[in-house]
Amino acid sequence: MAIIEVKALTKDFGKVKALNGINFTLDQGEVLAYLGPNGSGKTTTIRVLLGILRATSGSAKIFGQDAWTNAVELHQKIAFVPGDVNLWPNLTGGEVIDLFTSFQGGHRPSLERRNHFIKLFDLDPTKKCRTYSKGNRQKVALVAALASNAELFILDEPTSGLDPLVVKTFEDCILKLKSEGKSILLSSHILSEVEKLADSVVIIREGQVVKSGTMKQIHKEAHGRTLEELFLSEYQTKRGRHEG
Amino acid sequence: MRAKAGGLPYLKFIFRRERLTTPIWLLSFLLFSTGITLAYTHLFATPEDMLLMAQTMTNPAMQALVGPVYGLDSLTPAMLMAQQLLSLMTITVVIMNIFLVIRHTRADEEQGRLEMLRALPIGRLTNPAATLFFAFLTNLALALIIALGLLATNIDGMQAAGAFLYAGSLGAVGFLFAAIALLMAQLFSTARGALTGSFVVMGIFYIMRAFGDMSSADSSTHLLSFISPLGLGLQVSSFYQNICWPLPVLFAQAIVIAVIALLVCRTRDLGEGVIPARTGRQHASAFLQTPLGFTWRLVRGNFIAWSIGMLVIGATYGSVIGEIEQFVQTNEMFQILLGISGDGAEQAIAGEVAASFVALIMVVMAMIAVVPVILIISRLRGEEKQGRLEPIFARSIKRQHLVLLYTIIATLGSAWFILCAALGLYGASIPSGLLDAGETIRSALMYAPAILTLLGLAVFLIGLLPKLTGLVWLVLGYSFMTVYLGPLMSLPDWTAKLSPFGLIPQLPVQEFSAAPLFALSALALVLIFFGIKSFARRDIGRI
Predict the structure, then answer these.
(1) A131 near B277, Cβ under 8 Å?
(2) Torsion sign (Cα): A186, A191, A197, A201
C-alpha cells in the first residue's frame, strides 16, 4: 500500500515555480531518501505533504487521503522533524516534548517511552529552549517524533547539528522503526546516511524529479562509480541539456 | 581601542539596514510637527481664544496629561503649540529610540546574527557603540529637521531660539532613552525582556512627570518633574523663557548611562544577560498540554504586565481627579463663568469638570488598551514568521481552532484591559469622592466594541493579508489623531467618525446610545469570521 502518493505536484510562489510536476510514492515499511541540492524544492514538498502549503496543482496523498483537506486527521499518524528547529525560548525541552505529543493526539505514547528516548539522546529536559544549542534543539524535535506512535515519519535533514554518536543512535532508531513496518520519508544531505538507511531514492532539481528508483537500481546504474559521484553528477545543472 | 575595532564599517552597515525605517520615522515626525503647527494660526486667531485654551490647561488634570503651562501673560500660537505637543512628541521619539536600539543590539544577539559579526574582526563594543552613535546622529538629525520645519511655518511667536530648544529637547530626551535601552539590552537576555524593561522605565518616568507637573511649584512633589527626564525635557519653556540648561543635563545623563551600559557589555558573555536564565519543569503541566494552555502560556506575560500597566495608568489619572476640586476652589473664573457661588456649588462644578475629564481620559485609555489586544493577536503572526507554527500544524491541531483561541483570549482582553484602567481610575479617585464606580466602569466598557473592531481587523488581516497585519497600527494611529487630537486641531467631525473610537458615545458627558455598540460588534464578528476562515485556507510559512 502506498503511504505517500505524489502526482504531478506543482507549487508556485507568485511567478516562481518551486515545484514543477513532482511524482513519487513511498510504500509501507520503506525508507525513501528525498535528495536534491539546496533550494531544489525538498522542504516545499514536505510542507505541502504536511498541509502547511497548498498545492497549486496535482495531488499529494497520504494514507490515500488528501494532504491538505485531511491534514488534521492525518497528522495523528505522522511524526515530523524539521531541519531548522525553532522552539519557544521560555519553555523547557521537556515541556515542548509533552506539548508536541499532546498536540499530536491519537494513541499517546507512555511516559516510559518518552523518558527512554530522552535518556537515549542524552537530553536535559529541564533546560529552557533558549539555552539549547542547535544540536540539542534538534534532539528535542527528534525525541518528540521518535517517542510518538506515528505510522509515517517525515524527516527534513533530521541530523543537522548532531554529533556522530547521536547520529549513530538516530540511525539505529530508524532501522528499528523500519523493522516495525513504519514508513519514513528522509530528506538529507548526508549521503553516507542515505546509503545506510534508504530503500529507494528520489532526486529532485529545480522542482523536478531527475532520478528515482530503488537503491538496487541506483547501484546498478552507478557503473562502478561511488554513489556520491552519481548523486553529485545528478545535482549539477546540466547546462548542455538546457541549451538544447 | 581594540574593543571598538571595525567601527566605521559597522556604522555604515547600520546605515544600510536603516535606510528605510529611520527616514520614515523622521519624515513622519517632520510632517506631523509642521502640519499641526500650521493649524495653530487658524485655531487661535485672537488672544482671547488662546487665553481660554490656556485657562483650561492650567487645570492640574490637563497638566498631568500635557505638562507645565507657562507664559499666560504673553501667549502666542507658537508657545501654545509647544506646551500642548512637546510631551506627546517626546513620548513618540522615545519609542522610536527604544525600538531602534533594541533592534540593533539584543535582537541581533538573540537571533545569533551578532555572533557571526563578532567572528569578523569586530570589537566587543563595536555593536553597542556604533548603535549608540547611530542613535545620536538620528536624534541630531531629528532635532535639526524639526527646528527648521518649525521655523519654516513662521507662525506668530516663532523664533529660532525657541524652535531649536523645542527640537533639541526632543533629541536630548530621545538620545537619553537610546542609552537607557542600551543598558536594558545588557541586563536582559531577550529582546522582549529588554523592550519591556525600557518601556517600564518610560512609564515610571511618565508617571513621575505627571505627579510633578500637577503639584504646585513650591511643593516637594514638583521636584519629580525635574528628576524624570520626560519632565526635565519640558522645562525648556520654549518660545517663552527659552531655558537652555536642561539640554546639557539630559545629555550628560545619557553619557553616564551609556558608559555604564558599555562597561556591563565589556564584561558579560555574548548571548547572556545580567539577569540569568533559569531551568524549569521537566514535564509540561496538563493545562500546558492543551492548545488553550499553550496559547495562554505564550501570551501570559504580556497579559499580566499590561493588566498592571493599565491599572497604574488609570490610577495615575485617578489621583489627578482629587486635584480638580482644589483647583475649582481656587480658580474664581469657573464660579464667575457659571454664575454660582456657595459651598455646594464648588462640589457640583468639580463633579462636572471631573466628568468631562473622565470622558476625555477614557477614550485615551481605550486607545492604549488596544495595544495589548493587538499584541496578543499579532503573536500568532509572530509565531508564524518565526517558523514555529509549522511544528504545531504538523501535529493534529486544527488551524481554525488555534486562531480561534488567540482571538478568544484577545477578545477577553478587549474588555479586560480597559476595565483594569477604569478600576485604577476609580480606585485612586475614591478620596475625592467625585466619581461613581458603576458609571466609571460603564463608560469604560462602552469602548470594548471599538477595541473589538480593531481586533477583528487584525484577525482579518492575519487571515487574508498577513503581510499587511501592521495596517491595524495605522488605524489606531488615525484614531488617536482624529479622536484625541482632532478637537484640538479643529478637524471636521466626520474624520473622527471614521474611527471606531469616534463612534462610541463619550459617557458621562454624551448620551448613551446602543446602536453604535451593536454595529461595531457585528462588524468585528464579521471580520473575525472571514479572518479565521481564510487563515484555515492559506499557506503557512515565513510569508
Answers:
(1) yes
(2) positive
Sign of the dihedral through C-alpha B70, B73, B74, B75: positive
For residue B121, is the peptide bond before it cis, meaning its omega torsion is within 30 degrees of 0?
A: no
User: Beta strand pairing status for A2-13 and A57-62?
Assistant: antiparallel
* A95 chain-B contacts, CB cut-off 8 A: 280-281, 283-284, 288
H-state helical runs in chain A: 42-49, 71-74, 93-104, 111-120, 134-147, 164-179, 191-197, 215-221, 227-235, 239-243
Q: Which residue of A has its CA nearest to B399?
A: A72
SS3 B331: coil
Closest in B110, B282, B393 to A52, CB measured: B393
Q: Which three cell numbers stand for residue B93?
A: 521619539
To 10 degrees, what angle do helices B77-104 and B160-187 make? Answer: 30
Q: Are B484 and B495 in contact (CB under 8 A)?
A: no
Q: What is the mean pLDDT of residues A214-222?
A: 87
Summarised one tens digit per residue, pLDDT across range B191-217 is 888 998 999 999 999 999 998 998 878
pLDDT band at B331 (very low <50, low <70, confident <90, very high): low
Going by C-alpha positions, the residue among B42, B74, B72 that lies closest to residue B58 is B72
**For B388-439, how does the pLDDT look when each residue is reduced to its tens digit (9 = 90+)?**
999 999 998 999 999 999 999 999 999 999 999 999 999 988 888 888 999 9
What residues form DSSP beta bridges with A12? A17
The label of the residue with cell 487665553 reads: B51
Q: Quick check: helix, strand or coil at residue A148?
A: coil
Taking the C-alpha atoms of residue A219 and residue A10, their distance in angstroms, rounded to an integer, is: 29
Instruction: Judge contact between B128 and B109, C-beta under 8 A.
Output: no
Q: Which of B484, B455, B435, B485 is nearest to B314 (CA)?
A: B435
Query: To the nearest whole angstrom, how far is the Cα of A59 from the nearest Cα of chain B?
Result: 16
Q: Is the pLDDT of residue B71 over 90?
A: no
User: B283 contacts in A (CB within 8 Å)?
Assistant: 94-95, 98, 125
- Specify the amino acid at residue A118: I
Instruction: Please give the pLDDT value at position A242.
Output: 44
% of chain B beyond a pLDDT of 70? 94
Tell me B497's DSSP state: H
> Side-chain half-sphere of B196: how many Cα atoms within 13 Å?
17
Q: Chain B: residue nearest A129 by CA?
A: B279
Please enumerate residues of A whose Cβ is less than 8 A from a Cβ of B. Answer: 47, 50-54, 71-73, 75-76, 78, 80, 82, 84-92, 94-106, 125-128, 130-131, 141, 154
Amino acid (1-letter code) at residue B9: P
SS3 content of chain A, % helix, strand, coil (to 5): 40, 25, 35
Nearest to A94 by CA among A119, A69, A59, A65: A119
3-state secondary structure (DSSP) of residue B257: helix
Domains of chain A: 1-77+151-160+178-244 (3.40.50.300), 86-150 (no CATH)
Are B330 and B442 in contact by the 8 Å Cβ rule? The answer is: no
Whether B447 contacts B370, CB under 8 Å: no
Neighbours of B227 (CB within 10 A): 12
User: What pTM does this model have?
Assistant: 0.78
pLDDT of residue A239: 47
Going edge to edge, which strands form the sheet with A16-27? Answer: A16-27, A2-13, A57-62, A65-66
pLDDT of residue B61: 74
Is B284 in Cβ contact with A99 (below 8 Å)?
yes
